[in-house]
Amino acid sequence: MWLLDKDLWIEVFHTLGKNMFRTFLTMLGVIFAMIILILLLGSANGMSNGFDKVFAGTASNSLFVWGQSTSEPYKGFERGRRIRYKIEDAAILKKQIPEIEVLAPRIELGNHRGVVTVYRNGQTSGSSVYGDYPEIDNITKKKLVEGRFLNKSDIEASKKVCVIGEETYKLLFEKGENAIGEDIRINGIYFSVVGVYKPNNNINIDGENAVFIPFTTFQKAFNSGDRMGWMAIAVEEDTKVAVVEKKIKDILKNKYDISPKDERAIGSFDMSEIFNNISAFTTVLKGFSFFVGIFTLLAGVIAISNILLITVKERTKEIGVRRALGATPKVVKRQIVIEAIVLTAFAGLIGFAISVGILAFLNSMWGSGDDFPFVNPMVSIPQFSISFLLMVSLSVLIGLIPANRAIKVRPIEALREE
């Protein structure tokens, strides 16, 4: 096989080694092009991984539904009627909409985002107090610092237990003090702390200055009856959240005599829209990075072609001698194309090594932080393989230009060259 021809490779490296400085300068264009390509792709991947980290713990297919005021009169009811949900609504929706995977009824002490004073040993904290089911943790995951989250036993026995946020802990406890098993007081009622959590630094729905107590305990302790504030819902993975959202609104509008045209009475927030927008952004960013990088790489490969054209002119006499001694145009063309491939591939590997080192440094600086969405900014094996193969393919195409120029040289004319 001609690729294993020892003499061919000796000639290739001898030719490239004649002028090392010029060879190095020729490679610089491809080196920098590969660095730019890999840095752009790696940074795009890093941002994508960073967003995944930022939103880790929040179900991407989740939905939040709450009651507002009607904007239209309907069936004898006046405009401006406040819609208040009941705990039975959760069971109705779960039964009638099989696409709902998790439904967690929620209720808050006071108005939405209302602040309640929580006491402990003379210390106070203005916190949000929520009545929840354990299922809420499947939608907005809490990172527990110590202890546990609410469980089924807490609900069934209506236990006076609570999980507090890290900010609440700082306001009510001394630094390093164990909070588990200690009591806090809310509206004159004592609750035992069973867990302390910190936020996931994602979409912070509840905040870190919050207190979670079992929903059933909330009903009895604060006399909320069968009232439900709002619902946190996760739908099945292959189901569009917007479809389930419409079904939920249709059922609730029918139950509470709300006009089908009333768009204000039922408030909702589709979390999947945020995730879809971010996914689309990162996809476009990766595509743009690849587009810019490839054209930069093309410019570097063209520079190699230009240098090879110059070397072909310089080697006119050599090529003429080889042709006179019986070298076929195919052999001459093959050598020049291989020279282009060797220069491009070697320069590309150097650029790849440098860019990987830069990305590793960036990852060590910012990859482990929670504030900047930049995690593991490395290129995948398929991305590198496609980039490298495309680079080699371009080098073959570009190398054909000086190769075709070389085989057009007539031996007799080449030998006349001084």
TrEMBL record:
Q: Where in the cell is it found?
A: Cell membrane
The record's annotation in Pfam families points to: FtsX, MacB_PCD
Give a yes or no for keyword Methyltransferase in this entry.
no
Ranges for domain MacB-like periplasmic core come to: 23-250
Q: Report the InterPro entries cross-referenced here.
A: ABC3_permease_C (IPR003838), MacB_PCD (IPR025857), Macrolide_Exporter_MacB (IPR050250)
Q: Where is the ABC3 transporter permease C-terminal domain?
A: 291-409
Q: Which UniProt keywords apply?
A: Cell membrane, Membrane, Transmembrane, Transmembrane helix
According to the record, the segments passing through the membrane are 21-41, 288-312, 340-361, 381-401
The protein's topology relative to the membrane is: Multi-pass membrane protein
State the PANTHER family in the record. ABC TRANSPORTER PERMEASE YTRF (PTHR30572:SF4), MEMBRANE COMPONENT OF TRANSPORTER-RELATED (PTHR30572)
Q: Could you say which protein family the record assigns here? A: Belongs to the ABC-4 integral membrane protein family.
Q: What is this protein called?
A: ABC transporter permease
